[in-house]
Structures are given as C-alpha cells and as structure tokens.
C-alpha cells in the first residue's frame, strides 16, 4: 500500500511487541477472556499490597470498578519499587530549566523528597480523601507534589499554570480543596510570571474557605506576600521531616486525581481517575506504545497541568523506572532550535510532543535555516510520538524525516483526559504506519465506529467513535456529578453502554485503520488545548458590554484550530478603531476570566447572530463565515439573513 511506513527492522528486533502476530495474539486473548487478560496484566505490572481477587465489577455500570478489593499505593509503585529493583541510583529526572540550567535527581533522591513532602503534608493534617490543588509550572517539585499526594492518599487536582485566578477559584471550590501547592513564580521564555499572587487572588474571590494551607515552592525568589498561618514555604514544610514515609495503602478504586477538562456545557468537568486501573495503563503503555527500555532517555514536552503530564510524566515513566527530561521552558526560547538542542544535550531517545509544536518549528526552520533539526545531532533518537490533536501528513513526514532521520517509528497516540492513557496508536515495533492515521486500538481496547443509533458502520464510512467495553484506566466519574458522567459518556441514544469519546472517526476499507476526524461536540482543540465553546461564550457574556456571543473554531495552519467569537454588544455595533479597541478589550477579558489560552484570535461584531425562527444560533453558518468563505448552504430557516453580511467582515 502507498504511504505506508514499516517499523524499522532493527527496532522490531528488540521491541516489546515485535510484530502484528504478537499484537493479534494479545487482542485475541482479550476477546477470549477479558477479565483473565486484564487480571494477568495487573498482576504482572503493578505491586499490590493486598492482591485483588475481582477483576471487573460491572454491577453498577457505567460506574465500573476494577481490581477493587486489591490495595496498593501509586507512589510506592513509582518510587519504592525502583529502590528495590536496582534503580535507586538511576537518574529519574533531568530537569532542564528555562535558562538551560540542569538539575538531576535519582530515584533515591526523588523518593526522599516525596517522603519528606508527604510527611510535611501529614503534619498539616492532610490525609486520605482530602483534595489538594496543585498550581505549579514544570518542575521536579511539581511531580514530587503529585507523588506526595498519592503517597498519603490525598486526591490531587493539578490546575494548569496558564489558567486565571477565576478559573483556579472555580476548580478549588468544585474540588473542595483543603490545600493549594504553588510556586512563587514561573519562568517561561526568559520572563517571570506570577503563580502565588494568582492563588491569593483566587482565594480572595471568595468561596474557598476549605483551603487551610498554601504551600509555596521558591522557584524564582520573586515577590510573595505571606498570609500568616495559611502560607508556608515548601522547604520549611519539608525541613526536619523524616526521609521515610509509610504509604497510605488505598483500594484500587481510590481517586488518585481529578483533572478538569472542557465539555460541551459552560462549566469544566472534574474527570476523576482511579489508582490501580489508571496506573496499570500508564505503566503498560510506556512499555507498549513507547517500547521503553532501561537505557532510554525519555522526554515528553507536555505540562503537568494536562493529562499527558499526568500519565506520561508523573506516573507512567516513574512506574517503569525510566530516566526522563522535564522541561520548563518554551520551544522557541532562546530560539526555535531549543527542542533539538535539548535532545542533543541529553541524548534523548524517545521524544513525545504535539503536532502544534512540530508545525510551528517547521515554520521557524523555513524562516531561519539555522534552527532546522539538521543542524543538531539527533542520532540518539529511536522513537517519536505525537499527541493531543490530529497530525497532518505533511507534519508527520517532516517529523519522520527531519527529526527521526527516517529510522524512528512515529506513534500518533489518540487518547483523552477521560481515557487515562493511549487508546489508538501504532505499536512502534509492529504496526505499519500511515501518516495522519492513529492506526489500531491497543490490545484490550474495544474501539469502534457507530452511527447515531449506536449501530456499527462499515469501514470506509465515517461515524462516531465509541469504546464498547470498559477498560482499567477509564474515567470513573465526574467529580460531584455522576449524572453528568452518565449522560456525557454513556448517552441513552447510543444504548447507554457505549463510551462516547466525542470524536468523529473513519476506518480505512483496506486496513481497518482509524483516522480521527475531529470533535463532534462543541469542544475546540487549539494548540492541543481542549476548550469548550460554551465556556468562552459564558466568559464573554459575563462582560457588562456584551449582550450575546457565539464562539466557533476556525481551521488554523499552526494551532490546528483557532477561536473566532461573534459578539453582539448592548451598545450599537462598533466599527473601525472603536471595534478594534473593543475587540482587544474583550480578548483580554477572556484571558482574565479563563486564561490566555482561551483568548479568541478573532472577534467580530454584529447587530445580531444568525438564528433559526425558534431562536437557535446557527453555528454551522458561523463556521463558514469564520473561514472567510461565502455561504452556499440553505439559509431558508434563518430568521435574519441580512446579519450574515455584517458578520462576514473582520474587524
Ligand atoms: O479530539 C481528540 C484530540 O484531543 C481530544 C482530547 O483532548 P484532551 O482530553 O485534552 O487530551 C489531550 C491529550 C491526550 C480528543 O478527543 N486528540 C488527542 N490525541 C489525538 C487527537 N486527535 C487526533 N489524533 C490524536 N492523536
């Protein structure tokens, strides 16, 4: 078949899953004996304090329970296991700071740090079942904070450092957090940005009485206002604490973390993950999708504020005793060769990043040939990964050729916050790759494509991506909202038992390979960041000037999609300079309400929005207008067709 790239023979020779026959054998085992299959993997890949006797309990479906009478501790699995299996002196983390300074910690040192911090948290009365919000940038301390929560059975909720005070406050309230772990400031691209000051602002917004402690990691030494009793430096909290900390042994279903993500309605959803099932898949996909080996230097460029930073920085790599690079900076500072330079510097062998980053670095290399990957020694690389959004074939090919030197398999990993780990991805030693396709589900993942009634569609025909059976690392609940969990992910229209991913997909007629065609709900993907259109609309209408707003995605060469907002003001429709000034004001408003990542790239003003006679906003028309195309669709149901002309014009 054309456009097919075979796994390099040298790679397959030592791969965990070396060929398609091995892949098919695993799939067949899962088909034949689902519980036996997962039970075996869970026994082989995790250390259990109390072994489980039940694999899967479906009695309260779709609230599934995995390995639920087993007990374990996630931080024990990620740290202590490495002290007992010869990895104690192995480098766990190579921290590459924004300015290029390098700090290394071994597994022994990381274990000690986590234990001291966990003891410090316990000394403040924090323990099993408490929720702790972590609002930090990329750092060894950020990962240590996550693992310390896991050690004492506290459920963490990491909030991405780019979210605003208001977004942080909403998450603190919803989670009912008892503590916030933060840093004085973060450093990005040579600039310092506040973190602790934003925590202060969030708590001052009100409703956060549950928060008793704010723990501050000193990153820059930048100005911090201490609120007595409540605030404590992380180093003071750890000072004098014992270097050992007895783990809290929790049931496999104990919530390890809550991570907020966007859905189709206005408020973010607190995706709740388990301990046992979640860790099993984070660890196993490190072995299967990344084929991790003891000598690898692994680097995932994600942030701990997103799920990728949970499964493929904090938990997966440590669970398998990997050496990983943690990167604080941005890909373009001090120049766009930063990623390639860092790979060369640390001899990175497995590199995992997002298509947006690849596309922006392609552009940068076109403008400035000195930052082209060919100027760097990337010979240490043996595997490349992509995550977060569809990768277009051009970007795939560039990545494969210019970064991977045509010798590294590219794993295009499709998954979601809710899935906990990879779902559909090539296996680097086995699966023939096709640029732009995430290929086949991992063994045991029963992905399928159905129509709107939940019926299977034939290959070659697009439809709705679903998963037919529960899997260990799946979302367990939406925090505080089981009804929303059920209606969002197991809708009655599809029969109530299929997991609805929220993406459209199509399978190839020849190969059965999956290609993701994008979200089918009102969720946008901007630079791999997931955002709800309703969330941005709510932020806009919260501005006193705004009467109504509709947000749509517009295809963007670099960021995948960009945000375009159509706004009706309470005052007369502005034009010229006035419109430009107001657009800027509203963009900054959204940054303050949600965070800079949610800023609309474009804002247009109209006297009204295109609506049907029943008052429904016709978003499909707005999508066409955002693209700058003229409307060829039927507009006969439109109440106010004249409005289209106004909205077609950029400010
Ligand atoms: O639309 C899919 C897209 O990202 C969504 C999940 O976003 P989030 O929960 O933030 O998790 C991102 C990191 C896993 C999906 O519903 N997506 C993710 N990976 C891919 C993708 N789309 C196409 N190809 C991928 N490899």
Topology:
Layout: H1 9-13, H2 20-32, H3 34-45, E1 56-57, E2 65-66, E3 71-72, H4 74-84, E4 91-96, E5 102-106, H5 107-123, E6 131-135, H6 140-152, E7 155-158, H7 165-175, E8 179-183, E9 185-188, E10 191-194, H8 196-204, E11 213-217, E12 231-233, H9 234-238, E13 250-251, E14 257-261, E15 269-273, H10 276-288, E16 297-300, H11 307-319, E17 323-327, H12 338-346, E18 350-353, H13 355-367, E19 383-387, H14 393-403, E20 410-413, E21 447-450, E22 463-467, E23 477-478, H15 482-489, E24 499-507, E25 514-519, E26 523-526, E27 529-532, H16 533-541, E28 546-556, E29 560-569, H17 576-593, E30 602-605, H18 619-626, H19 643-647
Parallel strand pairs: 4-17, 6-7, 6-8, 8-11, 11-12, 16-17, 16-18, 18-19, 19-20, 29-30
Antiparallel strand pairs: 1-2, 3-13, 4-5, 9-10, 14-15, 15-23, 21-22, 22-24, 24-25, 26-27, 28-29
Helix pairs in contact: 2-3, 4-5, 4-6, 4-11, 5-6, 7-8, 10-11, 13-14
The structure holds adenosine-5'-monophosphate-propyl ester (PRX).
Family: Belongs to the ATP-dependent AMP-binding enzyme family.
Organism: Pseudoduganella namucuonensis
Cofactor: Mg(2+)
């Amino acid at each position: 078949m054309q456009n097919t790239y075979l796994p390099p023979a040298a790679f397959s020779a030592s791969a965990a899953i070396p060929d398609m026959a091995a892949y098919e054998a695993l799939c067949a085992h899962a088909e034949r004996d689902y519980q036996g299959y997962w039970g075996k993997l869970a026994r082989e890949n995790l250390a259990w304090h109390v072994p489980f006797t039940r694999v899967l309990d479906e009695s309260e479906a779709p609230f599934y329970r995995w390995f639920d009478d087993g007990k374990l501790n996630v931080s024990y699995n990620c740290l202590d296991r490495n002290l007992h299996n010869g990895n104690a002196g192995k480098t766990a983390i190579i921290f590459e700071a924004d300015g290029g300074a390098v700090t290394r910690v071994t597994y022994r040192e990381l274990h000690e740090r986590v234990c001291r911090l966990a003891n410090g948290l316990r000394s403040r009365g924090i323990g099993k079942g408490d929720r702790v919000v972590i609002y930090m940038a990329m750092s060894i301390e950020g990962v240590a904070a996550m693992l310390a929560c896991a050690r004492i059975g506290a459920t963490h909720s990491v909030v991405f450092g780019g979210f605003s005070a208001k977004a942080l406050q909403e998450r603190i309230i919803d989670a009912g957090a008892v503590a916030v772990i933060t840093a004085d400031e973060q450093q990005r691209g040579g600039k310092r940005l506040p973190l602790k000051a934003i925590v202060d602002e969030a708590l001052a917004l009100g409703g956060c009485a549950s928060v008793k402690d704010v723990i501050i990691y000193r990153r820059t030494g930048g100005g911090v206002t201490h609120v007595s009793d409540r605030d404590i430096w992380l180093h003071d909290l750890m000072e004098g604490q014992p270097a050992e900390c007895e783990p809290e042994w929790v049931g496999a279903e104990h919530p390890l973390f809550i991570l907020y993500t966007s859905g189709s309605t206005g408020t973010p959803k607190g995706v709740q993950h388990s301990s046992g099932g979640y860790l099993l898949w984070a660890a196993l996909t490190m072995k299967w999708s990344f084929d991790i080996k003891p000598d690898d230097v692994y680097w995932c460029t994600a942030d701990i504020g997103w799920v990728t930073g949970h499964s493929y920085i904090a938990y997966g790599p440590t669970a398998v005793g990997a050496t990983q690079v943690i990167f604080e900076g941005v890909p373009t500072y001090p120049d766009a060769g930063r990623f390639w330079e860092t790979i060369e510097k640390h001899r990175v062998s497995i590199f995992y990043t997002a298509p947006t980053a690849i596309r922006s670095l392609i552009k940068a290399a076109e403008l400035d040939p000195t930052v082209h990957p060919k100027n760097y020694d990337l010979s240490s690389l043996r595997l490349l990964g992509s995550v977060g959004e569809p990768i277009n074939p051009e970007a795939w090919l560039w990545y494969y050729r210019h970064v991977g030197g045509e010798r590294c398999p590219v794993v295009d990993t499709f998954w979601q916050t809710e899935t906990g780990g990879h779902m559909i991805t090539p296996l680097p030693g086995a699966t023939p790759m096709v640029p732009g396709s995430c290929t086949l589900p991992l063994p045991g993942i029963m992905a399928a494509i159905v129509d709107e009634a939940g019926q299977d569609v034939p290959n070659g025909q697009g439809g709705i991506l679903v998963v037919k059976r529960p899997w260990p690392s799946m979302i367990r609940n939406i925090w505080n909202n089981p009804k929303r969990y059920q209606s969002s992910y197991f809708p009655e229209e599809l029969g109530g038992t299929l997991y609805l991913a929220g993406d459209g997909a199509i399978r190839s007629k020849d190969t059965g390979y999956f290609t993701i065609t994008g979200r089918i709900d009102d969720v946008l993907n901007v630079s791999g960041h997931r955002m709800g259109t309703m969330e941005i609309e709510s932020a806009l209408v919260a501005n006193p000037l705004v009467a109504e707003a509709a947000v749509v995605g517009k295809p963007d060469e670099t960021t995948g999609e960009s945000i375009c907002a159509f706004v009706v003001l309470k005052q007369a429709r502005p034009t010229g300079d006035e419109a430009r000034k107001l657009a800027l004001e509203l963009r900054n408003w959204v940054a303050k309400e949600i965070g800079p990542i949610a800023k609309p790239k474009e804002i247009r003003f109209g006297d009204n929005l295109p609506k049907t006679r029943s008052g429904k906003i016709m978003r499909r028309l707005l999508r066409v207008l955002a693209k700058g195309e003229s409307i060829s669709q039927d507009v006969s149901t439109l109440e106010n067709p004249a409005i289209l002309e106004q909205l077609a014009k950029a400010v």
